[in-house]
């Protein structure tokens, strides 16, 4: 299952705080911070998220309207039929999915 959420320029600061885990106060009470290390992030990056997003926006044309979507976030979950597979097979699934989304959407 894949879910995409789109963001305007006004959402970028909050998004970067969320992605960089800069808060200990989560509205979702089911979040278990002790399991954060299990999250997989395949994107190579340097620096904080907000700086990277702003640098990327300088590289591409983006209209100067408040409602323009300037970014998106994908959440991909492992299909049920792969839950019994090895960890390396599961990792391969996510790597192939990342490659597909990167190629298709940039």
Q: Can you characterise this structure?
A:
The protein is an alpha+beta fold. 36% of the residues lie in helices and 14% in strands. The protein has three helices and two strands. The two termini are 20 Å apart. The model has no long low-confidence stretch (mean pLDDT 85).
Order of helices and strands: EHHEH
Main sheet: strands, sense, barrel:
2 strands, antiparallel
Helix count from the secondary structure assignment: 3
Tally of DSSP β-strands: 2
The fold-level CATH name is BirA Bifunctional Protein, domain 2
Query: Averaging pLDDT over every residue, what do you get?
Result: 85
- At the first level of CATH, the class is Alpha Beta
Low-confidence stretches: none
Helix/strand-derived class? alpha+beta
Please list the strands of the largest sheet in the order they lie side by side. Answer: 1-2
Helix proportion: 25-40%
- The share of residues in extended strands comes to 5-15%
Count of the separate structural domains: 1
Cα separation of the termini: 20 Å
Rounded to an integer, what's the Rg over CA atoms? 16 Å
CATH architecture label name: 2-Layer Sandwich
Shape: globular
């Amino acid at each position: 299952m894949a879910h995409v959420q789109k963001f305007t320029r006004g959402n970028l600061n909050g998004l970067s705080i969320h992605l960089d885990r800069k808060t200990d106060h989560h509205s979702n009470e089911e979040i278990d911070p002790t399991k954060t290390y299990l999250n997989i992030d395949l994107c190579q990056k340097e620096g904080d998220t907000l700086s990277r997003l702003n640098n990327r926006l300088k590289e591409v044309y983006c209209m100067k309207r408040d409602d323009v979507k300037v970014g998106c976030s994908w959440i991909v979950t492992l299909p049920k039929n792969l839950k019994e597979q090895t960890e390396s097979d599961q990792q391969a699934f996510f790597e192939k999915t990342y490659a597909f989304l990167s190629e298709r959407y940039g």
